[in-house]
Fold these 3 entries.
Entry 1:
Amino acid sequence: MSDPHILTPEQQLAEAKQRLHLPRIVVICGSTRFTAEMNEADLRETKAGRIVVKPCGDTKSPHGLFSDPVEAEALKTRLGDLHRAKILLADEVLVVGGYIGDSTRAEIAYARSLGKPVRFTHPEVDPAV
């Protein structure tokens, strides 16, 4: 039988953030086609006193890191893993843009499976509606 006083790692993280008096952490999710909107959301959320984390950039645009297709796929996988870690770290998710693709849909499902609140800049694209 497990000890009811033993906290899960997620509960320990939440308690540590509370003890440290950290502001709420918001992770921005969405298609990289909405990079400008993500930057605007970052500014608004930061102005509201929240810590913001978001995707690292547009992996579909030309960049030296993505020139080798095999390395690019491996990097995209690592970036996806990192973004899921950002969702785990965050207190809530903000989905930006008027389109939800497969990756963003999976991120929303993951956030909701963790019990994270999910907000939308365009609520009509919420897959749960």
Entry 2:
Amino acid sequence: MTSKAAGAATKAMVVAGVMSGTSADGVDVAICRVSLGRSGVAPVKVLGHSKFAYGKKLRAMVLAAASGQKMTAAKLATLSWKLGEEYAACVEKTAKQFKLSPQLVAVHGQTIFHDADEGMTWQIGESAVIAERLQLPVVSDFRPADMAAGGQGAPLVPMLDWHLFCHATKNRLLLNLGGIANVTALPADCDVKDAMAFDTGPANMVIDAVMQRLFGKEYDSSGRTAAKGMALTEVVKKMSAMKYLQAKPPKSCGREEFGKEFVDKLIALCEKAGATKEDIVATATGLTVSTIVEAYGKFCWPHLGQIAPGAKATEMLIAGGGAKNKTLMRGLTEKFAALGVKVGTTESAGLAVEAKEAAAFALLGWLTWHGLPGNVPSATGAKRAVVLGKVSYGG
């Protein structure tokens, strides 16, 4: 970093981070103050957070595109522009609600395709529309730069995890339960290059799909449906044998691995075993718990032990919409307690569970604006740290 860039980077900025994840349920906006603190650590303070649900028609279009349904170029372009308008409106409403004036907007966009093995990804939501509507510069399209450098393009949240949650004496696991579950393993007092992070497998995506298919509901509110059923251990075991779940990090996934075909197979196996509808939801929930615990044992724990063998304790902080699923949280808490890992949420550290990913992109946008790298090569597998994203200038 040049002295000029370093000087500029020390100035605090108010950045609106915008996230719409693989669950395709809506948009999270976190307006944050970001600056450069001591030892290169960037404090990120959430000043205001709002969540907006997609309208039925827009969500249907997003799901159709993300599920690989045939769509004309015109329809994909229309969807991208509509999402741009949606993101701009969400930022505007959040800024008005909290009486804030963002100086920069950082937009993840809506993923409609991600194939890390082939080095391709596509997030849509026209940034020029956002920049024009808000008259603000917009950083978008974060993942391709990492993939061009040989990385998976994901996960990108580890940069925030390290800046906010690295502890001097404790190992920390940062688990995000969105459509996909991803974990960051931070050895005690580690450098950012020692962070391990990867997608463990499905979280809300499969549970939501089962609920929609069997109950006509968008999701399992508080995990109440799963609590009425019983997870089928043999089905969980069979579904956990898939290649992705056994592969070593770095790795990332999405609807390509855990979409319709995966859900079809899960439901078919459960029905063959005589499961009730509630049992099938419980099995989908149990699968999420099982794959996270297995990933910890296979990959995270050896890494933590190697980098920080003298750590006093290991704790897990959970964020994402799945943190509100009591059945899912109970399963994780019980399984990890048996492994000596205390489970809580990011709320205890002052970060709302549904604001974390949007806050992460606020930080990444700030880094891009100052010409600073935003990826963590040890997490994505990239050959080097690179500046992420593309800038659309408004105003």
Entry 3:
Amino acid sequence: MTAEPRLWVILPAAGVGRRMGSAVPKQYLELAGRTVLEHTLDLFLAHARLSGIVVALGAEDGYWDSTAHATHPKVIRAPGGAERCHSVLNAVSALTERAADRDWVLVHDAARPCLRLDDLNRLIGALLEDEVGGLLGIPVRDTMKRANAGGRVETTLDRASLWHAYTPQMFRLDLLRRALREALEANDLVTDEASAVERLGLEPRLIEGHADNIKITRAEDLPLAEFYLRQQGRIG
């Protein structure tokens, strides 16, 4: 009998968060008394279905060892890379000796601490039998403009088929490894895993989530994230 595929999580956390304008990387900024990364890890570590989490950290990271989950038995450390895609591929390599090719890998932004448990479960439930995999997202609601080089509107896009791409993004280990390797061999620094899979001619499935699954990129995102976490009952 073939073993049921397991589920693993990868958190690329080697970024320095230049847009935050802070000396502290954004994943280590304080959010309601804890770091952003600790809030992100909390949800995954409490999920019984997940076998382990790989956190990809920068070589000069001086913060990780003092976080609450640094020595957790389900957390594996991997070296970060110059770009997100390098970090994720390094984490995939760290998983290779622990996971099977047909296991699922969920890649999630370390700076998205407000992922809802029901969105995570919806993604897993929808994709476990999918041939390709997919990602969380939400349909675009605003009018979308394409700008020219001068910063003026070139055209208005039809938003009917446009989505905001969120994370987690969920793919089989072997597919994710092949997609990232081929992208990097072509010097294509893909900004998400779905883009790498798309390069292979495949069509990842979009699973609608909630708009509060925000990525912290600017200082004003921190109080908003705290508000969302309180609404979800994850902090008092």
